[in-house]
Design goal:
This is DUF393 domain-containing protein. The chain is an alpha+beta fold. It is 44% helix and 13% strand. It has one domain.
Length: 144
């Protein structure tokens, strides 16, 4: 597991097979650590950051002290992956539609929450980032 204290952390829907495959691919991007939303430390982190537990893709960059959620997270990941700007914009603008289709295909029974901004990483949440890393999911053998 990556021990870089500034390595970004992606919180994703671990019950969604499509999201899990995407998370595995993103782990190769700048040492991103992928943690399923359902992992124990995620709830405590979300409470510390948002004062609630929004069901959304969340990308935490402790080095920048930023937290990207929903559309903002999708666009940031697309930008970091080096996709053309238009792709990041399309992903951001169609995040809800893409999430709905993926949710329907995976049988997920809930829609993502309406949380789509970039936030300052709170001090309380910052103290929990290492706990997130310890709960990182390992890629399936066939995908690693």
């Amino acid at each position: 597991m990556d021990t870089d204290p500034d390595a970004p952390v992606l919180i994703f829907d671990g019950d969604c097979p499509y999201c899990s495959v995407a998370a595995v691919a993103l782990r190769r991007l700048e040492g991103v650590v992928a943690v399923p939303w359902e992992a124990d430390p995620v709830g405590e982190f979300l409470d510390a950051q948002f004062g609630a537990r929004p069901f959304a893709m969340v990308f935490v960059d402790p080095g920048e002290r930023r937290v990207y959620a929903g559309r903002s997270a999708a666009q940031e990941l697309a930008d970091r992956a080096g996709t053309p700007g238009i792709v990041g914009g399309l992903v951001r603008d169609n995040y809800d539609r893409i999430a709905g289709v993926v949710g329907a295909l995976s049988g997920r029974g809930r829609d993502p929450d309406d949380v789509h901004e970039t936030y300052q990483l709170t001090d309380a949440a910052s103290e929990l980032v290492d706990d997130l890393r310890s709960a990182a999911s390992e890629p399936p053998e066939a995908l690693s």
